[in-house]
Amino acid sequence: MRPKLFLTAFFLLIISCGKDNVSDNSSPDNFIRGADLSYLPEIETYSIRFYDAEGKSKDVLTILKEAGCNTIRLRLWYAPPSNHSGFDEVLAFSERIKNAGLKVYLTVHYSDTWADPGKQTIPLTWQNLNIDQLKDSIYAYTYRIMTAIQPDFISIGNEINSGLLWDLGQIDHPANFIALLKEGTRAVRDASGKTKIIIHFAGIEGSDWFFNLISTNTVDFDIIGISYYPFWHGKDLESMKNALTSLSNVSGKEILIAETAYPFTLGWNDWTNNIIGTADQLVSGYPATPQGQASFMLAMKEAIRSVNKGIGFCYWGGEWIAFKGPQSTNGSNWENLTLFDFDNKALPVMSVFKKEP
User: Fold this and answer.
1) At what angle do helices 290-306 and 237-251 cross, to 10 degrees?
2) pLDDT band at 26 (very low <50, low <70, confident <90, very high)
3) Coil, strand or helix: which one is 315?
4) Which of 42, 89, 159, 254 is catalytic?
5) 8-20 tens-digit pLDDT
6) Helix, coil or strand: residue 196
7) pTM value?
8) pLDDT tens digits, 254-272
9) Mind giving me the DSSP string for 219-257?
């Protein structure tokens, strides 16, 4: 090799090695550090300001992204009376999320309102459909969602422990339940080769039986989503970690904590009755303080990171502050579990979104 060519090659090698050692920011960011911001479009109609940890007024997406959040979760209702969390709002907000450089995670409720283990109310316009018509409807609706929004992740139903699209889709009618799930997942696959499909279960107890039913019936999906709130689903992080590890090992699926949260205070900022408000709801060693909230979430993050195939978490209701004012009796019953204090300033818990090396 000629000396000049040798020096050029050596110089390029040094640059290449330097690039390899620059930072982790160029490596794939596959661990989900998410936040559900479904209330944000409604909150913003009240001209509410949010602030970062230094007290600077910023867009919530900016605050979260700067903290290290990489995924935003949104609920989608079929035909909500207020239009909040409806198709048009979610479509517009999804575009805003993508433009901010964040991933979109949709949780489709297949209802005009909240769907969870205690209620899976069929959309009003679908109420008189038979099972075959309902299968056609869930396919067409899911396909429409996919082609319009093209999310990175989509959950076919929200906390579907007891089925979806009641009464026909109740889990007590397993053939119907599985058939409806399969139409939803088929629509996703037909519309996209990239979107990851999540099946979402609330809590740990019964999840092994549920996902065995799903797997036995060959439902096509990618990720097991679990809601884990310690005040409802168990206060022992080690037990949670072990249960999810077992679930992952048996199913072979990736595991996501699809919803979680922890209080930074037991105080109040409006007259709405808070869901979490007593010391017996807390986990030992993690007080309801800003640092206690941060410490719990960091421990929870480490627990899911140590689970075989654990791929991340999503903080629920982080923006659901008392936006209707301190005198409201119909405001936020989640105000003490948000990512922002009662002055709408980012709390230390934001550190949970930091990307790990």
Assistant:
1) 30
2) very low
3) strand
4) 159
5) 443 333 334 433 3
6) strand
7) 0.92
8) 999 999 999 999 999 999 9
9) ---SEEEEE--HHHH-S-HHHHHHHHHHHHHHH--EEEE
In eight-state DSSP terms, residue 22 is: S
Joined together, the tokens standing for residue 238 give: 């080690």
Q: How far apart are CA 333 and CA 269, in angstroms?
A: 10
Per-residue confidence band for 27, with pLDDT thresholds at 50, 70 and 90: low
**DSSP E strand stretches across the chain:** 32-36, 71-76, 103-108, 153-156, 196-202, 223-227, 254-260, 310-315
| Of 47, 102, 111, the residue nearest 75 (C-alpha) | 111
Helix (H/G/I), strand (E/B), else coil: 32: strand
- 302 catalytically annotated: no
Q: Is the pLDDT of residue 253 over 60?
A: yes
User: Which residue do the tokens 């867009």 mark?
Assistant: 59
Out of 1-10, 111-120, 278-287, least confident range: 1-10
Distance, CA of 162 to CA of 111 (rounded, Å) = 14
DSSP state of 30: -
H/E stretch holding 148 reads helix 131-149
Kind and range of the H or E element at 183?
Answer: helix 174-191
Distance from C-alpha of 214 to C-alpha of 106, rounded to nearest angstrom: 20
Mean pLDDT in residue range 31-51: 97
- How many Cβ atoms are within 10 Å of 46's Cβ, its own excluded? 9
Q: Which distant-in-sequence residues (6+ apart) come within 8 Å of 291 by Cβ?
A: 348
Annotated catalytic residue within 89, 183, 254, 259 = 259
Cβ atoms within 10 Å, residue 281: 16
Query: Are 347 and 55 within 8 A, CB to CB?
Result: no
Say whether 259 is catalytic. yes
Amino acid at 9: A
CA gap 108, 78 in Å, rounded = 8
Distance CA 185, CA 259 (A): 21
Asked whether the predicted pLDDT for residue 4 surpasses 80, the reply is no
Q: Is the pLDDT of residue 40 over 70?
A: yes
Residue 101: its pLDDT value, please?
Answer: 98
Q: Tokens representing 12?
A: 């390029």
Q: What's the token pair of residue 46?
A: 């009240």
